[in-house]
Design brief:
Length: about 400
Amino acid sequence: MNIPTTSAPTGLLRVAIAGLLAITALTGCGGDSSSARPGFISPEGMTAVIATASPDFGSGEVELVDLDTDNMTASGGYHATVSDIAVSSHGQHYYLIERYMTDRVAKIDITNPAVFEWQYSAVSPSDTGSSNPYELIFVNEEKAYLIRYDATTAWIVNPSATTEAEFLLGELDLSAYAAGGAATPRMSAGAIVGDQLFIAMQRLDSSWNPTQDGYVAVFDINTDEEIDTGMGEDGLKGIPLISRNPLGITYRPNLGLLVHGVGNYYTWGQIGGIDRVDPETFAVTQLLAGDQDTGRINHLAVINDNTAYINIYNAYQNASVFRINPATGEVQSEIEEVANTDIRALTADPLGRLWMGDGTLSAPGLRVFDPADDSEVAFIPTTMLPMDITFVVED
């Protein structure tokens, strides 16, 4: 694909609709390696899609990077909007998710990146405020699940809908998981394994603290009925987690479901870590118990069954990246080149390389690392701060 290097018209075919992806969408919730995409032996037709925000967080836009070139550069800015945005992908389409108080989802074909195929609202008349959509989890071209952080229901949607009336197919009720006086369960991520959808919920209390156990709810994607895992407490059907405040969920067949949590950003009373969930028995073990060095896990990027990376929140605009063994939970080394850097996104591309979104105000961009030796192989400057990354491949 040849990506235009000039800025796209910001209002092109945008529709004003009242009112935010893997493993399926390779977002900041964790990526996967080329072993999950058999047949990918070159970067031909691959594009990185980056959600970016201005330094003052007053605006945002999408930038694109063509992977099939020796000199990768970012082109922007497509679809100027608010700063609180994310991206999910499926096939050769990506989905721009406008999150808190904007509450919209738009579909874009990577071969026509300046145009929305559609843009639909993510709120319904029964919602009492912003639904705050987070990501899309895909079953196929005609069915996906929209994770809605500030709502009590996840949506069942049709990504191929040609009208807004056809977009919403149904809802999954998660209201029972709200805890600590909060109105919603704070669903944050999802993954599909076989015929089952797994949705991670933070269950923060009314003061936004992880005083309650996080949970993973499980649904049958054929019936959209919740499955009673037999693991829950107080009448809940889902799976209680050990690590608090889950932010992402990643699946690999030999590892199971890896749910990473950040715990409490301000105290060490509610700790984060990585939990392993068996998708068949629903048993939970803590793979990595967070401590003051590795406790606040913002992102997990899985390269293969023995190599993964975690992005640790140290303080505002200060993060660290560590290499771990996702099979054992062993923390192996720190990536010294980005120590105490403002890393805001972390994922793996389809070729098995590690991508970081560096939000350094003076020089924002994308850092690409080779997991063979943890060396940086590319730095791609971006116009704004990279906040979320996904990848699409032309059909």
